[in-house]
Design goal:
- Helix 3 packs parallel to helix 4, helix 7 packs across helix 8 and helix 8 packs across helix 9.
- Strands 2-1-3-4-5 form a five-stranded parallel β-sheet, sandwiched between helices.
- By secondary structure, it is an alpha/beta fold.
- The protein is built from ten helices and five strands; from the N terminus they run H-E-H-E-H-E-H-E-H-E-H-H-H-H-H.
- Keywords: Phosphoprotein.
- One of its GO terms (biological process) is phosphorelay signal transduction system.
- It comes from Stieleria neptunia.
- Pfam families: HTH_8 (PF02954), Response_reg (PF00072).
């Protein structure tokens, strides 16, 4: 294979200088997809879907890195950030959030996260943020944050419902009040206003 300057660097456990990572997100499908991608890059991956589960996992099997979803049922990712840093001040943590939560993500960086990323983020996005180290781009003055678009809100809602249904497209379509084929067409689309991800899963893989 011929490498060119236009090909983005591929990050892995060796280049990041860490061999373990904790992923915390209440959306099962997205969490498992990301876990698989990180395992392929050489990481020992732990996963959790809530504050309580993450604390228990981290107590029994601490990791070098952690990626936290800001918004989860129960206690937030910001609460979890503070708890994990209390348990291990050397942990390197990144916060994930939707566009509407960017101001809170900045609070997370100021509370000790090394960076934040807008969801959805693939494995390379996350590892690139870890590779940049403690140099997040955090605005310090008056900042205007765009509200999430209707398309973005719909995308996130669909994936949350699909996760709640354990990946069952028929049940998710019933809960959403749309035809199954309509839901499949929506699932083929990448997240609005985000670059295409190499980790996209086709519909037949979700079933």
């Amino acid at each position: 294979m011929i490498m060119t300057d236009e090909i983005a660097p591929v990050y892995n456990a060796a280049t990041i200088g860490a061999d373990s990572i904790l992923l915390v997100d209440d959306t099962l499908i997205l969490r498992d997809r990301l876990a698989m991608a990180l395992r392929q890059r050489g990481f020992r991956v732990q996963t959790a879907g809530s504050y309580d589960e993450a604390v228990e996992v981290f107590q029994h099997s601490p990791t070098d890195l952690a990626v936290l979803d800001l918004r989860m049922p129960g206690r937030s990712g910001l609460d979890l950030l503070r708890k994990l840093l209390q348990m291990n001040p050397n942990a390197r943590i990144i916060m994930l959030s939707g566009f509407g939560s960017i101001p809170a993500s900045i609070d997370a960086v100021r509370a000790g996260a090394i960076n934040f990323l807008s969801k959805p983020a693939d494995a390379d996005d996350i590892l690139a943020a870890f590779a940049r180290g403690d140099e997040p781009s955090v605005p310090t003055g008056e900042v205007s944050f765009p509200a999430p678009s209707l398309a973005r809100n719909e995308w996130e809602h669909i994936h949350r419902v699909l996760s709640d249904c354990g990946g069952n497209i028929s049940e998710a379509a019933r809960r959403l009040g749309i035809h199954r084929r309509s839901l499949q067409r929506k699932l083929r689309k990448r997240a609005p206003e985000d670059p295409a991800s190499p980790e996209v899963v086709e519909d037949d893989e979700l079933e």
